[in-house]
């Protein structure tokens, strides 16, 4: 029986559980002996002119070797956005010397012999800034009253799509419009960012840093520093979570390399959490204007989404987030007319990038809220409105009006499974009972049905990935992968794939990744691509290795290649009909290196889907919502290891509930962050979550030989609107139609007050 | 993040503590569990020149009955108070509230004396002590004195403690195992309360409704007049001055104060 | 100043700055890097270790205050032959970890949960771990792991040193 599809515990865990994984700040590499510690001096003003940076006192502080300011990096070109359609004048200075554009903008680097000395000395760098008015939020940005880059002349970084035609909603019996905030959140991987660098006598830099794909990070660092890529050796140690925010390199990583070159000493940097919460990319940050129209029989005829994406101060991945949102605008629905339009706007805040789902959760949140608003307006059960409007089941590709080609799907089946598992009718009956009784704790039932796009990326944007499989004479095997695990369990999963074809046991297979000398090509781990591309590449490489071995074994055994079959018990090839008689892969490797390097190309991206039901209880006197059940149907095609897939679902579900219920990055009107420690940023904890109820569904995709779709982000995409819808549903009978995320107690309470004041029943 | 440099002195008795403080001057601070002080030192919001570590004064850790009062040593950790059989039998609101402070790791280190001396307006135990009408026992170079809790917390991080004094004990009446209510309103289980209300025998104290923990005097007076719980609780925010932050503006806090007071009183009466 | 601390059963004496946090003492002075630091505000629990039998956040304790004490970190849990502590074994069996960064603190806090309550409910485990943040697992499998460890008996709620002292 195949190991694929079975629950296999992780081979990574014994080390993680006894010694701890070795993250960048844990490195004891001898090349880092005597490394200096870098402490970054960051702007505490959101927008202003830098009048002076006085390093004299800091230079006198104990242990200080150097204080690097902008003038020391004058040889470097400012950092470009990397997006060809964005005005080239949007560049980020390595160190600010003219204008600061957000609280967290880097001004100087203090290098000290010891870590503790760095913070003392950094406090002594005197920075004088003349404040300018700060641009906070998309409305202020779009007004262009204050412009972040006067040389560009506008805060509008990019625009996509056209306005809807005037007659877009003509003929609809009902049209509902709503402004919806998809708030800015902080990714908060538990490991903050860290980097270490050392230059060799050969002019080559070795850079260790925490990221989601070494090859992309290396290319960026080399380009930014104007280096031949061959002179950059980038190594990704263990990574303590990424969630999209560690895609590629951050300027800080290249900065660490550059200051190391300046002082000709190895340098280490590890940011604090307070630094991380202003310095690392944030996620989401879209303001939506939705309009949805249709008939009172439940048929939706037209849907429009206009999105304003907050990009923060320097354009990063936020520039393309709305394009993903637009692509997935209509989600699982067969709306006859769909419209989407977006702008990307600069503000004096931390830059926004990818965060678990990256553009797709925003699309799902908007449409799932819109469908609920429509259902409330016509007085129909939201499950029924969904049934009426879902795309019917399809097993050949379906192209939407937004240009997405879904591989296959059965959204109605997912919805019905979720409703059945939740006991939807019983929940509605209980809700009616509590409403009738006027209970303080009201029940809310929230639905969402989602589809998302996974496996769209890869190195250079193509859905390809490399893998190398080598069997050694001692019977062990090594896999090299361009994917970049940071919790997903690739070491186990990729070994399972190879073991399934070669018969080599898991504990004899080593999976290597994240070292650009060992693995020069790779697309990293992002966009839920790893299994369907990286795993498929390992599958392909192992298959090709079998064929190579077959040729050699045929010669060695003087047999016809067609008569040789893989004998998993032997971990080799045997003559058909005589199991156990043949030659092992290890023996063949002893004769000649047995190695295959291959590139897998996926046919197209895949579109996992599912349906979530979230049940909340809302204390209508205080407005506080508590999640009591989360029921999730997630169809990601064929499952390789349910242990790992379920883990991805759990984490995704929690992050969705977190956004709906708790988390938000906030700034005051002057652009000062007010959530820049974990004492202030309400990161979801165990007590705010129930145990999850997972329901399995598997519709294999034809796009890769494993039949796998991505599962990394689906949980978040489905659970966010399901939770928000549940909170609103709990107080719908009091006249509440919408509450923005996070659905804080104060917001819910105030919505109830306002509905009562407006004569809501 | 790490604290600024400081000198460190470990002491073994109250007398040693007081003389160490006298020796090291105004910028010296006592360190007990450190869970109020070290976090603000790491953020460099507090920069003491010397820390006098009193955590080794073992004879300040106790919970015992003394006449009609329960005496709690200042270095009694929240974890110990939470599990004290004496406290559970004699003044059970305190072990309950001690168990609601922070998280288990914080309760393993934090001390009642530390939380009393710190005077955070959102602090759980001071709210309960205020509703209990307790007394804070302090010792300085001039000897011991007892300060009623109603006169102890003066404002944000401000108390009636003189700079050269140390909190050594807290005393509360033996109110027994029942007849109290504590309502702590948070977004997450281990957050500081947005508002909390403690009710004991007709007294009500509120957290986070002013610069320090405060009594809901209008509610107490109404109850004394024989008003219903609902009528009295509706007055709970009178005389308070709540601030606004991301978790709640002043209007919402006033609403919570009235709601939580009603619930705490109902629980106390149940 | 000088401190003498027993770390994972081995007494050692080190010269330290008074302000040295126990977390940095363990990571940098002792070279025990399993204990991680995930925040500045005593919020995340990644640095949780057991000091004198109780779980504490080592980012909010001075090495100086720990003078004369006993500290157990993740590295001190497994047996001399590498046999996993029941809590370690349960985390692996139940997939209670993904990226692994919160794991050392989570395991130490989880041992503390069982020390207080040998048979906790789902809710009691969650309350016991309220001071430990995890971004990967949604806590689901961590709760399962702690409950599975509880079934292994009292050793799941003890660190090795504590067992010796009690024996």
Folded structure, characterized:
In chain A, helix 16 (642-661) packs across helix 17. Chain A is α+β, with helices and mostly antiparallel strands. In chain A, the strands form 7 sheets. Chain A has a 7-stranded mixed beta sheet with strand order 3-5-1-12-9-10-11, with helices on both faces. In chain A, strands 7-15-14-13-8 form a 5-stranded mixed beta sheet. Chain A has a 4-stranded mixed beta sheet with strand order 18-26-27-28, with helices on both faces. The mean pLDDT of chain A is 96. Helices cover 33% and strands 24% of the residues of chain B. Chain B has 11 helices and 14 strands. Chain B has helices at residues 14-24, 37-42, 78-83, 85-90, 93-98, 104-109, 112-118, 124-132, 217-224, 229-233, 250-269, and strands at residues 7-10, 28-31, 50-53, 63-66, 69-73, 135-140, 143-148, 153-155, 158-159, 166-173, 180-185, 195-200, 203-207, 214-215. In chain B, the strands form 4 sheets. Chain B has a 5-stranded antiparallel beta sheet. In chain C, 33% of the residues lie in helices and 14% in strands. A 5-stranded mixed beta sheet of chain C has the order 2-1-5-3-4, sandwiched between helices. In chain C, strand 1 (2-7) and strand 2 form a beta hairpin. The longest helix of chain C is centred in the middle third of the chain and has 14 residues, at 103-116. Chains in contact: A-B, A-C, B-C. Chains A and C meet through helix 1 and helix 16 of A and helix 1, helix 2, helix 3, helix 4 and helix 5 of C.
The biggest sheet of chain B amounts to: 5 strands, antiparallel
Mean pLDDT of chain B: 96
Mean pLDDT of chain C: 95
Q: What is the SS-derived class of chain B?
A: alpha+beta
Q: Can you give the helix content of chain B as a percent range?
A: 25-40%
- N-C termini distance of chain C: 34 Å
**Assembly status:** heterotrimer
Task: Please give the largest β-sheet of chain C.
Answer: 5 strands, mixed
Q: Which sequence of SSEs, written as H and E, runs from N to C of chain B?
A: EHEHEEEHHHHHHEEEEEEEEEHHH
Q: What does the overall shape of chain B look like?
A: globular
Distance between the termini of chain B: 47 Å
SS field, number of helical segments of chain B: 11
Number of helices of chain C: 6
Which blocks of ≥5 consecutive residues of chain C have pLDDT under 50? 162-167
Greatest contact pair?
Answer: A-C, 57 and 58 residues
Strand line-up in the sheet with most strands of chain B: 4-5-10-6-7
User: In one word, what is the shape of chain C?
Assistant: globular
